[in-house]
Amino acid sequence: MENIIIVGTGCAGLTAAIYTARANLAPLVLEGKLPGGQLTTTTLVENFPGFPEGIDGPELIMRMHQQAERFGARFDYGIVEQFEQRDGVNRLLVDGKWLETKALIIASGASARWLGLEREKDLVGHGLTSCATCDGAFYRNVPVCVVGGGDSACEEAHFLTRFASKVYLIHRRDSLRASKIMTERTLADKKIQPVWNAAPVRYLTDEEGEMRAIEVKDTVTGEVREIGVKCVFVAIGHTPNTGPFQGKIECNAGGYIVQKGGTRTSLEGVFAAGDVADPVYRQAITASGSGCAAALDAERWLTEQE
Ligand code: NAP
Question: Where in the sequence is the domain holding 213, given as residue range(s)?
Answer without folding.
Answer: 120-234
